[in-house]
Amino acid sequence: MNFGDVLAQALPLTILFATPYLFAALGEVFVQRSGVLNLGVEGMMLMGAFTAIYAVSSKGMGADPVVGLLIAAGVGGLMGLAMAFVSVTLQAEQGISGIGFTLFGLGLSSLLFKLLAGGVITAQGFQPIHIPFLSDIPVIGKILFQQNILVYLAFALVPILMWVLNRTKWGLQIRAVGQNPAAADSMGVNVALVRYATVIFGGIMAGIAGASLSIAATPIFQENMTEGRGFIAVALVYFGGWSPFRVMLGALLFSIANNLQIWAQILNVEIAGSTIPPNLLIMVPYILTIAVLVFTRQRKQNEPAALTKPFQRGEN
Amino acid sequence: MKSRLTFSRGDLVVALAPIVAILLALVAGGVLLLMLGADPIQAYGTMIDGAFGSQAALLRTLTRATPLLIIAVGICIAFRAGVINIGAEGQVFVGAITAVSFSLGLGATLPAILLAPLTLLAGFLAGAFWGAIPGYLKARFDVNEILSTVMMNEIAVQLLLYLLSGPLIDPAQVAAGSRIPQSAQIPEASWLARLAPPSQVHVGLFIGLAMAVVVYLLLWRTTIGYRIRAVGQNKNASRYAGISVPRYLMLALVLSGGLAGLAGAVELQGINHRVVEGFAVGYGFSGIVVALFGRLHPLGAIPSAFLFGALLVGADKMQRTMQVPSATVTALQGLIVIFVVSSDIFVRRYNARRTARAVKAAPPPAEVNQPAPEGVV
Amino acid sequence: MTSFYSPTRYQKRLAMTQTTLPSGHKRINHVEMRGITKRFPGVIANDRVDFDVKSGEIHALLGENGAGKSTLMKILYGMYKPDEGDVLLDGEIVTLNSPADALDHNIGMIHQHFMLVPTLTVAENVALGLRKQGLVLDLSAVRERLLKLAQVYGLKVNPDVPIWQLSVGEQQRVEIIKALYHGGALVILDEPTAVLTPQECSELFVTLKEMQTQGHALIFISHKLHEVQELSDRITVMRDGRVIDTTRNDGIERRKLARMMVGRDIVFQPERPPMQVGAISLSVSDLHAKNDQGLPALEGVTLDLRAGEILGLAGVSGNGQRELAEAVAGLRHATSGEVSIGGKTVTRDNVATRLKAGLAYIPEERNRDGIVGSFSVAENAILQNHADYTHGIFLNFSAINKHAATLIRSFNIKTPNAQTPAKNLSGGNVQKLILARELARKPSVLIAAQPTRGVDISATEYIHHVLIEQRSAGVAILLISEDLDEILALSDRVAVIYEGQIVGILDREDADVELLGLMMAGATP
Amino acid sequence: DKPFKVAVVMPSSTTDLAWSQSIYDALVTIQTEMGGEEAMEIAYTENMFDVTAAAQALRDYAEEGYDLVIAHGTQYGTSLFELASDYPDTSFAWGTAEDTGEDEGLTNIFAYQADAEQGGYVNGVMAAMFSETGTIGIVGPVPAGDALLYINGFIQGVNATNPDADVLLAYTGGFGDTAAAAEVAQTQIAAGADVLTGSAQQVVGAIEAVKAVDGFWFGTQSDQSLNWSENVVASQVYDWVPTLEDMIANIQYGELGGTAYTLTLENGGLTFAYGEVEVPDEIKDAAQAAIDSIIAGDIVVRQSLVEEATPEATVAS
Ligand SMILES: Nc1ncnc2c1ncn2[C@@H]1O[C@H](COP(=O)(O)OP(=O)(O)OP(=O)(O)O)[C@@H](O)[C@H]1O
Ligand SMILES: Nc1ncnc2c1ncn2[C@@H]1O[C@H](COP(=O)(O)OP(=O)(O)OP(=O)(O)O)[C@@H](O)[C@H]1O
Ligand SMILES: [Mg+2]
Ligand SMILES: [Mg+2]
Fold first, then answer.
1. How far, in Å, CA of C153 to CA of C147, rounded?
2. DSSP secondary structure letters along C243-307
3. Which ligand has the minimum distance to the alpha carbon of residue A167?
4. What angle do CA B62, B66, B72 make, to 5 degrees?
5. Is D78 within 8 Å of B180 when comparing Cβ atoms?
6. CA of B167 to nearest chain D CA: how many angstroms apart?
7. Nearest to B269 by CA among B173, B170, B193
8. Ligand 2, CB within 6 Å, residue ranges
9. C375-395 burial, b if ≥16 CB within 10 A, otherwise e?
10. D4-9 and D68-72 as β-strands: parallel, antiparallel, unpaired?
11. How far apart are the CA of D269 and the centre of ligand 4, in A?
């Protein structure tokens, strides 16, 4: 197989497996743009992943995938609400409370898995939708137009969220609250409300991200199945300079690097006559992400000046 | 500035708040246990018994607390410099794997008395190197450290697996053909002495306590620490005062990583004597939590590490005796972290009032009146 | 001061008869604060304060740092809840739980520290306050109305530039437009002139007078007595949270006001002994540097500064003063040119080396660049030279505390004790702390940027006194200030900077406000 | 009268459909055979990936007087040896391992392991015949241990049956990342694989991927056809029951250790479970033939591919 064929095969999977990162990271962009750091994404993803598949699975409620999606979003939103209460109202240190939510989500999802599912649980999740005509276009069609609905949703969200962020009242308030909460407050913006909204939204997106793993990308659940994807998503927010568009690029870069290293493994790609040990190939996406940041000019103009700083009226 | 450990009402609040929080978390966790049909009172009974109930139990708690303490002390340095080091996890692995190679490689040649300390040093240096990478990237290219340390963790995991399943694999495993990913056992000379056999508690405990004191002195009594804290609190003012901000950001991550690496070596030389797949998994994150519980103060990390060690040991005991899934324990830990960190607000309020009342009061201990550095979670 | 347009009684009465303002909002005829008490841990910021202002009136609020002025105003703007007392609008008691409430009552406030989002454009900053509007931002509508207001009140603003690109004066204007846009029947101005150049000041005054005649009620806070005298109808003086007195502003002279504020007499014009100029201590030649946005900020600055002289650097803010100071201090990379301190070239040296070479720098943004807020006063007192207060590798605390105690005493810094976090100090005392710290290092060159900005009169008096003292002691002082009175009061020579170049250097005798004003606009003498 | 008390400490969860589940299920089977709770008590600690924690768990069980304490993970070895000398009257079992600690003078440790490569070979034979595309995917965790043995055996089986079959081998770098396993499997499918296999608890993700394209899967460690009967052709099942029963018998007889057990096709420790996929007789026969000749010693399945690699055993790709 030449590289072109490989790429044509790799891209559909790249896009499919980029979606969980994309959902979670897009949510985190909004959270951070409003000045809150949520390191609980991982736990929220896990809860979303389990509740979604439990709702859909015949072992569970046997509901429609859409119901599963909504439940996952709801559960994520609830955890977001809790996170907001802790980090905004109680002004707890955000990183550590986030880690707390990660632990809690990991524990609770595994626990529910044991109690309700008892063992490995699978489901008939979202199936690929072949978009008429478009999906028939050679190569491109398979890459872009034979994906499941969540993939389309994730990528559709990018321009929408960019629009919300840059063109709407909410976006304006979010950006202001993240840059200078005191100023926003003095203009009558309800800082706490805005942050609650974004953190809850971030939770919802994390929940959906989990669902996009458990009832779309691979319709199955195992304990701790996200395996650190939540943290990667947070990292991608920094990679993307808090810009939805660039975060998408980051998710795609990371995802394609990962898929190509799998190809390198199955094709026994050799360097200097010897095959590369798998574990070293598996490092590539992580190294690449850092390297790209080093070699590309970083954009800081969107960096939320108030990130991780709780707001207390009159203390500045 | 001077942190004399004088016990005022403030310290009482500081001490009490987390305890109350833990109790509340346990109440919340009780719901989970009821969900499992387990009697919470009995469950927590076994938990406390498992952690403090007997001398053996206490020693276990200390055993588990040891690596967490060392990591947490390192985390304090980074966070005091305003650097969020999520990378302890990977730094522990790299420290351990380097210590193993060092001890196996030079065990035969080096004089026995030197082997243990030098192995520890090797672990420290390796961790320091692993911390230096994100440190350099931040100082030189302004690469966000959360991103780089998260990535470095994953890289470290793969590095560990690669070395354990290839270059460093136990020859016995190859001979037997079973090829289990684990290193050979390090020479006895590099082991850390056990303090109270059969318990596993070992000299590493004292290393941890020593590190806590050393780092406390470093941060609050030396010029280097002064600069690290200045950089963490106000980068601008530090620059204006002629302090090289990049250098101290870097230094903080190096020391932080070094201590994590040391923790890896200590766990290796004190407990396992070989690195295996699954070695010290999750210690890095626990270390961060311990550090923040200890209010990012090295001395605060001591009780904090003990508490967290007790939590781990007690929770395992609960899992065993009550036969509740291990997940319950993880969830419970999450709850405790959330509740304790939430309780901080009362401490901060108290301290605010107290610093304002400082007119009459004696100088407040640094550990309670220094707020988290800028940009620190 | 340049003269300004003053409305006739007739115009005033005319304005009074209308009930709506040109900004289209309802007028507030009378704002009253009754028996306001506000306690903060450890201080009573306001102690049973009565205060009122009427439509078409400018009421000035005077007081030393920490007197309680801002607190009182923040209460009026809904940022703090008073522990006791009421706020009445046109006789009705109102509860202001948040700035949102204040805005709803057409109260606007321009804060001591600007409340603008640097990354947003002017229009976006204004739009932020619009709560009754649809989801999709209609910035064009905002832009339109904004420009109309700007025209009515004679304010020049460009709605589409992000705030960070604006000079302080322009930002000030944005704040005012913001206030007007969202009502501003009552506009509170908390030290609006602290950061303005004379030109900008007089422009501001014109605007304020205009607003007054239009029937706005205005509260004006300043530490500069002549401004207060020039502008206000009534003056209220506060001290330690209490109101000392409220008087009409009819020919009450400065000394009296000063005595009311401080409780003693104030020397406004320090007498300057004849100078003994020595060798050149600081020499800057053909210095080029870029600003934060990467645009050229210094385009060939050349200066010589001699021991024992004060060289005043006058200029409209944003013409390179800050960049010059930073380039000299080694905080900003010089693209070309030379800097030498005490004859030693330091162009390539880092900050630390230059400090050792005898440089001292009092930064303009004192709280951001001058102190580590969470550090104690004592820790801040050794920020640069902590290496000198050690035995072995350890800091020598007895020495440090002794040092701090000396500074606190000799510069009479008002602080509970040496262990208090520096951020708890009032503006004037932070500045004293920095000054004390810098001078304790016995520098040969001192760069003082806006040394008395936002500092009350007694502290200002003291700081001026100290600068003269240092001059006599042979220190070469570069005084960067936008307050021409200060420049003229202290300087031996005055250099004027315009668009990154020195347009001219005058001897004190040849310099006066008008000439300097012209030069600051770019005219060469 | 008083029940026989068994405790097991395992690295993953009792429901991992793999290594940990295989021992847990075996214990439950024995329990029911022996007559339930009152005949035999089972205590377990799962997800003990932290070896220090595991050591403490093992010591606890020994302390609490369990008759048999099972350390179901090679990584537990170091601490187990310390433990065994502290509790000479307790019987310990350790797997995967073959060292019963006799050199250290320990008499109370049973060691057990599985010759995963044997069943791997058989699976390979069937897979090679099952594949229509002649392309076969292997989803590995980490190139080491039990998984590596199985994979090496599998590859030998494939090559022996269809030398020009394409074997696509890729590792996920972990044991529990189902999504990663799914991505690897989907990639291999995209590359033309129609039959796949793999090891560790993560494979459930891969099997789902196979199911999505109605492909075929060969399992190992525990019977995976239970969940995916239409896709899992056959699973090599670790049947620890005979081994455990023998240990228990020994213990009751007074022999607390010293025996090293190995699951092989010969001793029936390695068995094959078939799902509902119907398997052509010729393939069943070929599998049986392979089993017989492995037992007879006519086929020697090597644990590694590299050492004295013979032509028919090298990876084709
Ligand atoms: N809905 C939209 N329609 C058109 N252009 C948009 C929309 N949303 C964002 N943009 C513009 O597209 C570019 C990318 O937007 P994005 O927010 O991802 O980048 P950014 O780094 O945030 O840039 P900006 O400073 O404009 O926010 C920016 O210039 C942004 O202004
Ligand atoms: N948020 C706060 N918390 C605690 N104390 C405060 C707070 N705000 C103000 N204070 C204290 O209240 C007193 C009055 O402060 P305020 O800012 O009103 O003085 P001011 O007259 O505005 O001084 P300046 O002229 O320096 O602006 C001071 O002692 C100050 O330290
Ligand atoms: Mg944007
Ligand atoms: Mg004020």
1. 10
2. EEEEEE-SS--HHHHHHHHHSS---SS---PPP---SEEEEEEEEEEE-TTSSEEEEEEEEEEET
3. 1
4. 130
5. no
6. 12
7. B193
8. A 314-315; C 40, 43, 45, 63, 65-71, 112, 426-427, 456
9. bbbbbbbbbbbbeebbeeeeb
10. parallel
11. 83
Helix (H), strand (E) at residue B254: helix B245-267
ipTM here: 0.89
Residues 6+ apart with CB under 8 A from D123: D153, D154, D157, D197, D218, D220, D234, D236
In sequence order, what are the residues at sequence separation of 6 or more whose Cβ sits closer than 8 angstroms to the Cβ of residue D179? A17, A20, A213, A217, A218, A225, A226, A227, A229, D205
CA distances from B214 to B208, B269, B297 (A): 10, 21, 12
| Confidence category of residue C12, pLDDT binned at 50, 70, 90 | low
| Structure token digits, residue C489 | 């009061």
CB C277 within 8 A of CB C309: yes
List CB contacts of B13: < 8 A, sequence separation 6 or more.
Answer: B346, B347, B350
Which of A41, A20, A22, A23 has its CA nearest to residue A199? A41
| pLDDT of the residue at B376 | 41
- What are the tens digits of pLDDT across the range A186-220? 999 999 999 999 999 999 999 999 999 999 988 89
Q: Which residues pair with residue C127 across a beta bridge?
A: none
Q: What is the pLDDT of residue A247?
A: 96
Closest residue by Cα to residue A172 from C136, B127, B199, B36: C136
D52·B63 Cβ contact <8 A:
yes
Q: Measured on CA atoms in the order C171, C173, C179, C180, is the torsion positive or negative?
A: negative
pTM value is 0.90
Two tokens, residue A106: 């990991």
**Residue located nearest, by CA, to atom 26 of ligand 2:** C65
Measure Cα distances from B115 to A63, B126, B262 in Å. Answer: 62, 16, 15
- Cβ atoms of residues B211 and B73 within 8 Å: yes
Amino acid, single-letter form, for residue D277: V
Task: Note the helical H segments in B142-203.
Answer: 145-165, 171-176
Report the b/e string of C48-66 with b at 16+ CB within 10 A.
ebebbbbbbbbbbbbbbbb
Q: For residue A272, count other CB atoms closer than 10 A to its CB.
A: 5
State which residue of chain B sits closest to C422, comparing Cα positions.
B355
Q: What are the two backbone dihedrals, phi and then psi, of residue C483, each rounded to the nearest 5 degrees?
A: -95, 100
D61–B contact, CB cutoff 8 A: yes
Amino acid at B177: G
β C84-89/C92-94 pair status: antiparallel
CB contact under 8 A, B292 and A223: no
pLDDT number for residue B367: 36
